[in-house]
Design brief:
With 330 residues, the protein is an alpha/beta fold. It has 16 helices and five strands. Strand 2 (63-68), helix 3 and strand 3 form a beta-alpha-beta unit. This is Thioredoxin. Keywords: Disulfide bond, Electron transport, Redox-active center, Transport.
């Protein structure tokens, strides 16, 4: 609600400065939460308790005050809706209800002329409000405006754990990374990032078979995840490299015959799974420079497969792409 639309905006400052207006005697202890309220988030208040239930409480968290009366039909419509939304807000706001038949003075000071009327208090002062039995969606928007949007605490924890796991993996702490990925999977068994990360830990630990086992029987959605596809391609590359022979023997072949492109591509695949990405890329780029037609431009196609596994922002990918461009467009 903007200041122009808010019927209470013009008079907030003067009306809320006289604390004596909210009960002449000191406020007693907070009233017992209304029956059925969620952890005390919803309660009835009185003129005497208004200062503690609303003014003081709003300095800790936003408080919505619902002014109502038993004879008010729209009030009866609003009550279950606003109580539902406040409960689902999980403590972002509290709801305090005030029966204006029994306690008319506060509503009078606020200039309320029709009910239901809901006013939000923040930091001890009224800041916004609405009138009428508005739809549930509008109440949610109002609470988001007053208290900020709902934060998914579990998702925030998962995101933090995934970030920490990646950092641990990059630093070579496979045990901590795997533990964090496993913890995420306990909370969210279909988390694709955690599944791919756990498989990567197993690969780095020298157990590609266990990594493949982790990625079996995937749902259709998970099987389409780019991160999981990249790990599966990496596992295929590892299996293929195991069948390509002794890298030292391939090095010797190339020493005597640098144009043995087949041997060079095999060596590139082996160096790739060993983690020497720059060397692997350089071997393929060398084949491209000497013979683009070899195996129908097989060196370039293999390099693109490497990029898929390494990721677009990996330093080896960025470096090799620059060299690839210079070859293609020279």
């Amino acid at each position: 609600m903007s200041g122009n639309d808010n019927p209470y905006a013009a008079s907030y400052g003067n009306q809320m400065t006289a604390t004596a207006s909210y009960g002449g005697a000191p406020a007693p202890a907070a009233a017992t939460p209304a029956a059925g309220s969620a952890a005390g988030l919803i309660k009835e208040t009185t003129t005497a308790n208004f200062a503690s239930d609303v003014i003081d409480a709003s300095r800790q968290q936003p408080v919505l005050v619902d002014f109502w009366a038993p004879w008010c039909g729209p009030c009866k419509q609003l009550t279950p809706v606003i109580e539902k939304v406040v409960t689902e807000a999980q403590g972002r706001v509290r709801l305090v209800k005030m029966n204006i038949d029994d306690h008319p003075s506060i509503a009078g000071q606020l200039g309320i002329q029709s009910i239901p009327a809901v006013i939000a208090f923040v930091g001890g002062r009224p800041v916004d409000g609405f009138m009428g039995a508005v739809p549930e969606s509008q109440i949610r928007e109002f609470i988001d405006k007053i208290a900020g949007p709902m934060v998914d605490d579990q998702q925030a924890e998962i995101d933090a754990a995934l970030a920490e796991a990646k950092t641990s993996f990059d630093q070579g702490d496979l045990q901590n990374a795997a533990g964090l990925y496993g913890a995420v999977l306990q909370a969210d068994p279909d988390n694709a990032t955690a599944l791919a990360g756990l498989a990567q830990c197993m690969i780095a630990a020298g157990d590609p078979q266990q990594a493949r086992d982790v990625l079996t029987d995937l749902s259709e959605e998970l099987a389409k995840d780019a991160g999981i596809i990249a790990v599966l391609k990496k596992l295929d590359q590892i299996e293929e490299a195991r069948k390509l022979g002794d890298p030292d023997a391939l090095e010797q072949l190339l020493a005597t015959n640098p144009d043995d492109h087949g041997a060079r591509i095999k060596l590139a695949k082996i160096r790739n799974v060993e983690g020497d990405r720059d060397t692997a890329a350089d071997h393929l780029l060398k084949v491209m420079k000497r013979d683009r037609t070899f195996e129908d431009d097989g060196a370039r196609r293999e390099l693109l497969q490497f990029f898929d596994v390494w990721g677009p922002m990996d330093p080896a990918t960025l470096s090799a792409r620059r060299k690839l461009s210079s070859i293609l467009f020279s």
